[in-house]
């Protein structure tokens, strides 16, 4: 499958790994049980913002990229966004811990794992050299892609940052 672009349908059978947040497993050292998260099914009738980072706990991702989405969550909701999700190649345990480390103590932002960058590879937005997901953002509205862009400069948030994606809604 080539790169997704506005007007395309979100691919069928996109499944990520996810550990749903629970209060009893709310401590950063607590491990939940990873479950399959069928994004194609879950997002079919919702407006979704999905942004991808090269890795949890990395400088640009932790200092700038994720915080922008956390801070702007009310504005995304006000624009009719049902789900905000972040994806990286890290396993579900790391993604869960990253959410807890950033005080996302609910599933207001989904922390999804794209093991082996499988989804990112299918849309040609994975780094072949490292095997990581690249930095990109998608808006999916009831199964249709309405925004899709990828960063071409290391550390840049010009195309995938919260402000840019929010302006596209």
Automatic annotation (TrEMBL):
UniProt-listed GO biological process terms: cell redox homeostasis; cellular response to oxidative stress; hydrogen peroxide catabolic process
Keyword annotations: Antioxidant, Oxidoreductase, Peroxidase, Redox-active center
Domain of life from the UniProt record: Eukaryota
PANTHER family: PEROXIREDOXIN, PEROXIREDOXIN PRXA-RELATED
InterPro entries given in the database record: PRX5-like, Redoxin, Thioredoxin-like_sf, Thioredoxin_domain
GO MF, any single term: thioredoxin peroxidase activity
Function: Thiol-specific peroxidase that catalyzes the reduction of hydrogen peroxide and organic hydroperoxides to water and alcohols, respectively. Plays a role in cell protection against oxidative stress by detoxifying peroxides.
Protein name as annotated: Thioredoxin peroxidase
Family statement: Belongs to the peroxiredoxin family. Prx5 subfamily.
Keyword Cell membrane: no
GO cellular component, one term: mitochondrion
């Amino acid at each position: 499958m080539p790169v997704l672009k506005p007007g395309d349908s979100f691919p069928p059978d996109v499944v990520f790994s996810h550990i749903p947040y629970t209060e009893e497993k709310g401590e950063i050292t607590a491990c939940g049980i990873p479950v399959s998260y069928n994004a194609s099914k879950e997002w079919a009738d919702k407006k979704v913002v999905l942004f991808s980072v090269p890795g949890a706990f990395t400088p640009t991702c932790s200092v700038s990229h994720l915080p922008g989405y956390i801070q702007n969550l009310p504005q995304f909701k006000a624009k009719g966004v049902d789900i905000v999700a972040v994806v990286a190649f890290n396993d579900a345990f790391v993604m869960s811990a990253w959410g807890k480390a950033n005080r996302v103590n609910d599933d207001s932002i989904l922390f999804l794992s794209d093991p082996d960058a499988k989804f990112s590879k299918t849309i040609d937005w994975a780094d072949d050299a490292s095997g990581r997901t690249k930095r990109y953002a998608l808006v999916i509205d009831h199964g249709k892609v309405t925004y899709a862009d990828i960063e071409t400069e290391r550390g840049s948030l010009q195309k995938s940052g919260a402000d840019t994606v929010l302006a596209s809604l």
